[in-house]
Automatic annotation (TrEMBL):
Record's protein name: Riboflavin synthase
EC assignment: 2.5.1.9
Domain Lumazine-binding as annotated: residue spans: 15-110, 111-207
Keywords: Repeat, Riboflavin biosynthesis, Transferase
Pathway: Cofactor biosynthesis; riboflavin biosynthesis; riboflavin from 2-hydroxy-3-oxobutyl phosphate and 5-amino-6-(D-ribitylamino)uracil: step 2/2
NCBIfam families tied to this protein: PRK09289.1, PRK13020.1, ribE
Keyword Repeat found: yes
Description of how the protein assembles with itself and partners: Homotrimer.
């Protein structure tokens, strides 16, 4: 029997590392009113699975609602379908799978929450020496959190940003990562899930709140009187 300690929580949410454990395949999809139920074949991630466990599917934290020795089921809510590429997959599609990080595990990637920020499009894919360079187009609301040599999760894979432009960024994929993940099947024009580095988002939030507090603190009676708001 393989025992695994409970998944680590970060701020109340389960943490993933972006190190893909295996590729699974979509066995079936039951589509509802902007929602879906996925049945996914897998092996490794099911060795210690329990109902209610979290598994990242293409970087999306989803809850196991049923399982057998060779497959598991998850529900996908409308908001998840709207923000991710799960609406574009079908039976037979390959997906990246990762269990939540367990206490005592090595931390090989970066903090990944499993909450996808949005999707990008592969704009270019080309060999470069022993690697493959992927250029991904993304909206400015995502690019603002992406920096050269920083971290980004693409379909749940922890990757280092090589460079960034006005509308896109580039990552370099080594042969091992390509062979073990769904990126090997992705081509120009394909959609990928993106999760930006959560630390950058926390820092931005802190700075915004700090500036808001400073702004409120500056609204003194003398300031309002000086600018004509008080008689």
């Amino acid at each position: 029997m393989i025992l695994k300690s409970p998944g680590i929580r970060y701020g109340g949410e389960y943490v993933f590392t972006g190190i893909i454990e295996e590729m699974g395949a979509i066995r079936s999809i039951k589509r509802g009113d902007r929602s879906a139920v996925l049945d996914i074949s897998a092996n490794k991630v099911l060795t210690d699975v329990k109902l209610g466990d979290s598994i990242a599917v293409n970087g999306i934290c989803l809850t196991v609602t049923a399982f057998s020795p060779r497959n598991f089921t998850v529900d996908v809510v409308p908001e998840t379908l709207k923000k991710t590429n799960l609406s574009m997959i079908g039976p037979g599609s390959r997906v990246n799978l990762e269990r939540a990080m367990a206490a005592g595990d090595r931390f090989g990637g970066h903090f990944v929450s499993g909450h996808v920020d949005g999707t990008g499009l592969i704009a270019d894919k080309r060999p470069y020496r022993n690697a493959v360079l992927y250029t991904v187009e993304a909206d400015d609301t995502l690019l603002r959190y992406i920096i050269p040599k920083g971290s980004v999760a693409i379909d749940g894979i922890s990757l280092t940003v090589v460079d960034i432009g006005d509308t896109c960024f580039t990552v370099s994929i080594i042969p091992h990562t390509l062979a073990e993940t769904v990126l090997q099947y992705k081509e120009k024009g394909d959609s990928v899930n993106l999760e930006c580095d959560m630390i950058g988002k926390y820092i931005e939030r802190f700075v915004i709140r700090h500036e808001q507090r400073k702004s409120r603190a500056s609204l003194t009676e003398s300031f309002l009187s000086e600018h004509g708001f008080l008689d």
